[in-house]
Amino acid sequence: MNLVRIVALVVFVNAFVAVAVAQTPIGTQLSYQGRLDSNGLPADGVFDMRFRLYSSATSGTQVGPTVCRDQVVVADGLFTVPLDFGQQFTGDARFIEISVREDATSGNCSTGLFTVLGPRQPITPTPYALMAVGPWTKATDGSLSYAAGDIGVGVTSPQARLHVVGASAGGNSLDVNGKLVVNDAGEFVGVNRPEATFIGEYFGVRAPITDGLGGMMLHVDSSNASGFYGYYNGTSLALTYMDGFTGDWRVLVGDGDKMVITQTGLVGIGSPNPGSVLEVLGDGTSTGVVTAAQLSGDANGGAVYGLSTVANANGVIGQVDSGSQAAAIWGIANAGWAAWLQGNVRVTGTLTKGGGSFQIDHPLDPDNKYLFHSFVESPDMKNIYDGVVETDDRGYARIEMPAWFEKINRDFRYQLTVIDVADADEFILAKIVRELSDNKFTIRTSRPNVRVSWQVTGIRCDAFANAHRIQVEVDKPPAERGLFLYPAEIGQPAERGVDNQRRKQLRPPTQSTSTRGACLEPK
To answer: For the whole model, what pTM was predicted?
Structure first.
């Protein structure tokens, strides 16, 4: 028999779908189908066939073992044989050389003479599917790999179910050092990265629009950064996400949104639907700077305020821990008031000010006027006490002070003024005859039964006053020398103000000059 050729080569892999579903490797065996011609006609009969795998169409090197199939039945030229060369399909070209002999004797396939058919048959791409679904080894160039259930793209040793490494660090590549997870419903896609540091490049989905970019792009280009990150520990979920319906950016922790930045620029912390520029809602149990308080602001540009809704909770807290010039709360007013406190004010430290007064509705015209009085001030921490007493038939009067008087005062000063509404011709004298002792002192007038207005002052000597005695004259600290608390009042430009230097931390100074001169006498 003159065996001419094998034509119409077909190679395929059995049970490909079954492997993908059951996730059970099928090995490296493949089925080979071909047609054997004899003298230009389809052959019929029983044949022994020997198969060798080579690296090139001519000459080259044999790859893998020689496979011999005994008593292959050929009908109308067609035959099918199983072949297994092992894992020889690594991406390089492969060619099959086939040798044939007609033989009806069973069991002698490996001996005797065979006719080598030509040319060698090229392996079609289909066998390489074995490498995608079976227990294949790693591609030598790292383009695709498989190891212990993990798939790698661009990496020869995958460390996760899907480990993808881009071709270049600076290109638009996807670098996933974790697991790509899609649930059964196909609703969620996420990247779980357990590494302490992670440098991402670009990952995006571009929408099919013509007027610009759409979809999503996340970009971070520094270590310890994540463009998008979610976390779930089995009981608690935490993630950041963009609400596609509203355009809001939200941080979800546990069972609710903990932080929201709306499309219009409103920020909510603990408030899922902020109605202000900044709104903070506590839960009444957390501890920290803001506890069970609401910090919100007028969306139209009004002031920010703190509102406490829990007993003894604080609306706003400011705290500094170091620096003699630090301020826990610093209010700046280019107009109006730097602070407006409605209600009682308590100061547990020392109050330092340029001046002060009280302000009330004017008692004679409360609808249209205010009445102001200045504070009484002294270089000493001075207390003032006064009253009116009438002397007895001998001209004596004893004035008793509270039991605590001498515990908080020292260095007493006395003032006595006789009240003589009858306007007698002789002048009535008044004097101190016994100074303060046991919280009382005694006066005497030159006539009996005289009314006397008295005043006593004392210098504070309680524990706080002794520990925080006011120093009357103080050198300015080096940073404030050449600067003034009130530059305009002494004819200096505003940039030489102490506060102006502090404001440079926030914004450039406002340039202005003063038209005020030296001290003026009151009119």
So the answer is: 0.47
* Spatial separation of the C-alpha atoms in residues 495 and 483, rounded to whole Å: 9
Q: Can the peptide bond before residue 208 be classed as cis, meaning omega within 30 degrees of 0? A: no
Question: Closest Cα partner for 33 from 96, 114, 111, 106?
Answer: 96
Domains and CATH numbers, the chain: 3-133 (2.60.40.10), 145-308 (no CATH), 382-467 (2.60.40), 478-523 (no CATH)
Beta bridge partners of 414: 456
Residue ranges of the chain whose pLDDT lies below 70? 1-27, 124-143, 146-149, 160-161, 164-237, 244-245, 254-257, 282-308, 505-523
User: What is the reported pLDDT for 139?
Assistant: 57
Greatest pairwise CA separation for the chain in angstroms: 169
CB 248 within 8 A of CB 260: yes
> Residue 136 corresponds to which amino acid?
W
CA distance 262 to 228: 18
Residues 214-231: tens digit of each pLDDT: 444 554 455 555 555 666
Cα 419 to Cα 423: distance, rounded to the nearest angstrom? 9
Under DSSP, is residue 423 helix (H, G, I), strand (E, B) or coil? coil
**Do strands 202-205 and 189-192 pair parallel, antiparallel, or not at all (unpaired)?**
unpaired
By the 8 A CB rule, do 74 and 46 touch?
Answer: yes
Q: Residues of 91-109 as b/e, b for ≥16 C-beta within 10 angstroms? A: eeebbbbbbbbebeeeeeb
> Residues 409, 413, 415, CA angle at the centre, nearest 5°?
130
Cross-strand partners of 231: 238
**Adjacent-strand bridge partners of 359:** 372
Sheet holding 150-153, edge to edge: 145-147, 150-153, 162-164
- How do residues 72-111 score in pLDDT, each as one tens digit? 999 998 999 999 988 887 778 889 999 999 987 888 888 8
* Neighbouring residues of 9: CB distance < 8 A, sequence distance ≥ 6: 32, 33, 34, 121, 122, 124
- Strands 278-281 and 267-269, bridge-based pairing: parallel
Give me 349's structure tokens.
């430290």
DSSP bridge pairs for 457: 384, 413
- The position carrying tokens 């280019």 is 334
What are 288's two structure tokens? 């920290």
Let me know the angle formed at the C-alpha of 464 by 458 and 468, rounded to the nearest 5 degrees. Answer: 90
Question: CA distances (Å), 195 to each of 155, 158, 174, 230, in order?
Answer: 17, 15, 16, 14
